[in-house]
Amino acid sequence: MDIKINKIEKSRLPNIDFSNIQFGKVYSDHMFMADYIDGQWSSYSIVPYDNLEIAPGNFTLHYGQSVFEGLKGYKGDHGNIHVFRPYDNLKRMNMSASRLCMPEIPEEIFIDGLKALLQLDKDWVPEQEGTALYIRPFMFGNDEYIGIKPSDTYKFIIFTCPVGSYYTEALKVKIELNYVRAAAGGTGYAKVAGNYAASLLPAQEALKEGYQQLIWTDSKNHERIEESGTMNLMFLIDDAIVTPRTGETILGGITRDSILTIAREWGVKVEERDVTVTEVIEGIQNGLLTEAFGTGTAATITHIKAIGYKGVDYDLPPVPNDSISNKILNHLHKLHRARTEDKYNWLLHI
Fold first, then answer.
1. C-alpha to C-alpha distance for 135 and 152, rounded to whole angstroms
2. pLDDT confidence bin for 62, thresholds 50/70/90
3. Is residue 20 very low, low, confident or very high in pLDDT (cuts 50, 70, 90)?
4. CATH node for 4-164
5. CATH 3.20.10.10 residue window(s) in the chain
6. What's the rounded Cα separation, in Å, for the pair 230 and 133?
7. Using CB atoms within 10 A of its CB, is residue 178 exposed (0-12), middle (13-18) or buried (19+)?
8. C-beta separation of 106 from 118 below 8 A
9. Residue 328 pLDDT class (50, 70, 90 cuts)
10. Which CATH fold topology does 171-336 show?
């Protein structure tokens, strides 16, 4: 694949303090771009990270035909870059694109574009423990057209940013019983922009009440646990990792799948099934539920310290260092930097 490269004149890298990085605020020097026009992908390029020129009548600004992914690259002990499960992100992105009547992104474009971008911006991958290079591929309809139909043209972009931890402490979350994130037949299982826009108001209302995140419930009766704002959810109940099964309304998380795969390999009991609000609250009260945590690319594993339900906060016990969740978290940290065997070929080495 012929990728035209236009390097930035002056790198911003010397001005970056990698020991103090705010998540999603600092962007690397370059981005990869490709266009879909007349039924085919073309115009592969790497250019300096900069603003885009978009017409006021851009289709996506009005109708939200946009999908995205999030993955991470890590600096290994020998200076190599290791990207975690990019082929799975591509598979999920194409599934999301299909749901929004968008063209699939060929593997060659996604992977080769990613490789070329990271090779050029390799010095942007931080080395400090607890840091990574966050990678954001996204695609949007690019027609200048005000009318309801799929766009005929699309733009695919990958940009990156060095990041620290998304969450720096255990979370206090609230079970949402009014607003709905996703309903059967909708787009809840896909990583589309509109899913997140619709969650902003309830998340802000919860924040005013002292909660950092929401636990979404089913749209019909608000009886079943689904996922959190930026994370899939898992619970340790009677020494088993219990998590809601994915489906029409729950995103199939790649970190989620990684954790369940490792847990099963280690002989930990795993249950993917319906999880009810009543089971969670009663489990905390009777001591059978000893851990709750979120999983995701940004969060990795983030523990939950309290769950709010109908005006009452139910506190969870402190999580010991040798808990199964912390053991898996430490294993993932080692795997990300190729410090342990990659049994499942999850790493793309650059």
1. 26
2. very high
3. confident
4. 3.30.470.10
5. 171-336
6. 18
7. exposed
8. no
9. very high
10. D-amino Acid Aminotransferase; Chain A, domain 2 (3.20.10)
